[in-house]
From TrEMBL, chain A:
Name this protein carries in UniProt: Glutamyl-tRNA(Gln) amidotransferase subunit C, mitochondrial
Coiled-coil ranges from the UniProt annotation: none
Family: Belongs to the GatC family.
Binding partners and assembly: Subunit of the heterotrimeric GatCAB amidotransferase (AdT) complex, composed of A (QRSL1), B (GATB) and C (GATC) subunits.
Group of enzyme by EC: ligase
Lineage: Eukaryota, Metazoa, Chordata, Craniata, Vertebrata
InterPro entries the record matches: Asp/Glu-ADT_sf_sub_c, GatC
EC number: 6.3.5.-
Main location per the UniProt record: mitochondrion
Length: 136, 527
């Protein structure tokens, strides 16, 4: 079962995984439904990969739900422990740089001074556009 | 020489009792002998020897740079080191060679320290066992200590149990193991929820978390920007003061460092604690706390009291929801911080080239472990529009309540808080892996993460050996930016307690050593 999903994934990006997610009846998983799974995978660009991962997220959410019991009326959110201090801003002068060569060295795909990325205006395949679930 | 404190080694170097290159070679040799601990991911042998030679030249000319000149240090592998692979124990960064040094690393190098290598950790510092990195788990050196073995023999548990090695705690377990195994004089860790203090407690070391904003995070690959700090691991508090003196201070490259002036300092030796007020937070006495740790905590409080200090019970009312709050904030910030790993500019990149999104997705699936992906997904869940208010903002509000709890206690006249660092001594690896990373992290971080949320300084001090011959640590927490005061009190405690040095007679004498059921079945040490 897993081997099949992995093969699909290699061929069609996340399409295979998403198909799995709906096929495995996510309604069983309580608050996480297929739409949320899809949405999270798309936002995070990281996939769940298994039922266990979805179960783990559900446990994480259940854990986080304990916060509801805390009374926070009139309390302002705290973003930083240093909120009482002014953020340090340095003067807008060029102090360093000119290290393009060094930075390009770390990339696996470079052409002259460019990082090379695949085409950007193609979204991940939508559910109805995926390849059919093939048998091995 | 290897078991001595940084201060003692520094004196020995200055007096010419040992040269930096001799010291460096001894450490490198011990690193080889203790390879089975899996403390190091990268051993920077050539770099260290070169630095040692340069240090030796300086000593010859009487121009040593200071207390850290020629001192071997190990650095956790989530600090960027120029020209030396930095992996964060993840496939995502395998082979990544940073073009710059983290500020704290640069400061150590500028003082002449020898970089022995990069140490193992939980992947991206997510974990409290140092068991979840791609290079495998780190073994606690105390598993093989004479102290533990003697206890086991007394309890007739026999050698067949010797293979049951213990975790170091995490996520800076590699740094802790490297230091506890005597392969260096100090080690850098990071501390987001207790990642320096937890392994310090399990490995019998001083694990110090500075106030947030005191030490630069530039070059520390971030986990939670509002809580991360570099942590300092040493064998004694005076050593911590030496290292902190070098590392602390404003860094123009890290705008979250405060601009208050900072000077290197020597810790006074307190003789009179009668003006001190120690607070014991009652909410930390949780049922899961082991009876041994609980009794040690009580004994420590008694120690202060009989020396004339005021010891009072205090309340940090929001303690019970602190770990939940940390869990939400951590996952949320992680989701954001991990977004930079897309395979384009650095790190792992997959073979798919259909589209950027497909490439990013596959790269991240291949590069990140389940634990990391799990946190990213949780974090993204908490940050969804429909959840933002109820989870993320809610957690930020609870954070304020937790931080205020501490402020209120300190304002009521308490100088230092005393709490356990961990629920128990180090557990066997096979026991630890029975639960998942999130559960273990929640247990491991329980006493330590509130401190990160409040940005306070804290230190785990080795307090005593357990009935199994294993270290137990206790945590001292101070007011923000009162790091010196905190370390001064810790130093007093250290003197009272006289925690034993770890003993590995076999490793030191050059005998052959056999570990049943270990992958590296025998370690034969020919000098």
């Amino acid at each position: 079962m897993w081997a099949r999903v992995v093969r699909l994934t290699v061929r069609g990006g996340l399409g295979g995984r998403q198909a799995f997610a709906t096929k495995a009846n996510p309604q069983r998983s309580g608050s996480i439904n297929a739409d949320v799974i899809k949405h999270l995978e798309r936002l995070a660009l990281v996939d769940f990969g298994s039922r266990e991962a979805v179960a783990r997220l559900e446990k994480a959410i259940a854990f986080a739900d304990r916060l509801r019991a805390v009374d926070t009326d009139g309390v302002e959110p705290m973003e930083s422990v240093l909120e009482d201090r002014c953020l340090y801003l340095r003067s807008d002068n060029v102090a360093e740089g000119n290290c393009a060569e060094e930075l390009l060295k770390n990339s696996s795909c470079v052409v002259e001074e460019y990082f090379v990325a695949p085409p950007g205006n193609i979204s991940l395949p939508k559910l109805d556009e995926q390849e059919p679930f093939l048998h091995s | 020489m290897l078991g001595r404190t940084l201060g003692e080694v520094s004196v020995a170097l200055k007096q010419g009792q040992i040269t930096p290159t001799e010291l460096c070679r001894k450490c490198l040799s011990l690193i080889q002998k203790t390879k089975f601990l899996n403390a190091y991911i990268t051993v920077s042998e050539e770099v260290a020897l070169k630095q040692a030679e340069e240090s030796e030249e300086r000593y010859k000319k009487g121009q040593s740079l200071g207390d850290l000149d020629g001192i071997p240090v190990a650095v956790k592998d989530n600090f960027s080191t120029s020209g030396i692979e930095t992996t964060c124990a993840s496939n995502m960064l395998k082979g990544y060679i940073p073009p710059f040094n983290a500020t704290v690393v640069q400061k150590l190098l500028d003082q002449g320290a020898l970089l022995m290598g990069k140490t193992n950790l939980d992947e991206f510092a997510m974990g409290s066992g140092s068991t979840d990195g791609v290079f495998g788990p780190v073994k606690n050196p105390w598993s093989y200590s004479k102290q533990r073995r003697e206890k086991r023999q007394q309890q007739a548990q026999g050698e067949s149990q010797a293979a049951e090695w213990l975790i170091t705690g995490g996520s800076s377990g590699g740094s802790a193991a490297a230091l506890a195994a005597l392969t260096c004089s100090a080690a850098l860790g990071s501390d987001t929820g207790g990642s320096t203090r937890n392994p310090a407690a399990h490995c019998g070391l001083v694990g110090f978390k500075p106030s947030y904003g005191l030490v630069s995070r530039h070059g520390l690959i971030p986990l939670v920007n509002s809580m991360d700090v570099p942590g300092i691991l040493t064998r004694c508090v005076d050593d911590t003061a030496i290292v902190l003196g070098v590392l602390a201070g404003h860094d123009p490259k890290d705008s979250t460092t405060v601009q208050d002036p900072v000077k290197p300092f020597t810790l006074p030796s307190l003789t009179d604690v009668s003006k001190l007020c120690i607070g014991i937070p009652k909410e930390y006495a949780v049922p899961e706390l082991s009876s041994e740790v609980r009794s040690l905590w009580s004994k420590a409080a008694g120690l202060f009291e009989s020396a004339g200090a005021k010891v009072i019970e205090v309340s940090l009312p929001h303690t019970s929801c602190s770990i939940v709050c940390y869990h939400v904030l951590c996952a949320s910030e992680v989701a954001s911080n991990m977004a930079r790993f897309d395979g384009l500019e650095y790190g792992h990149r997959c073979d798919i080239n259909v589209s950027t999104e497909a490439m990013y997705a596959a790269t991240r699936r291949e590069g990140f472990s389940d634990v990391v992906r799990g946190r990213i997904l949780s974090g993204n869940f908490f940050l969804l529009k429909e959840n933002y208010e109820n989870y993320f903002i809610k957690a930020q509000k609870v954070r304020r309540l937790i931080a205020n709890d501490f402020v209120n206690v300190f304002n009521s006249g308490v100088d230092i808080l005393l709490t356990p660092t961990t629920l128990s001594e180090a557990v066997p690896y096979l026991e630890f892996i029975k639960e998942d990373n999130r559960t273990r992290s929640a247990q491991g971080d329980i006493f330590t993460q509130a401190v990160n949320m409040a940005g306070l300084p804290a230190v785990s001090m080795p307090a005593a050996l357990s009935h199994q011959g294993l270290p137990i640590g206790l945590q001292f927490i101070g007011r923000a930016f009162c790091d010196q005061k905190l370390l001064t009190v810790a130093k007093w405690f250290e003197k009272q307690v006289q925690f034993p040095v770890i003993q590995f007679p076999e490793l030191m004498d050059g005998c052959s050593l056999v570990f049943e059921n270990e992958k590296l079945a025998s370690v034969s040490l020919q000098q």
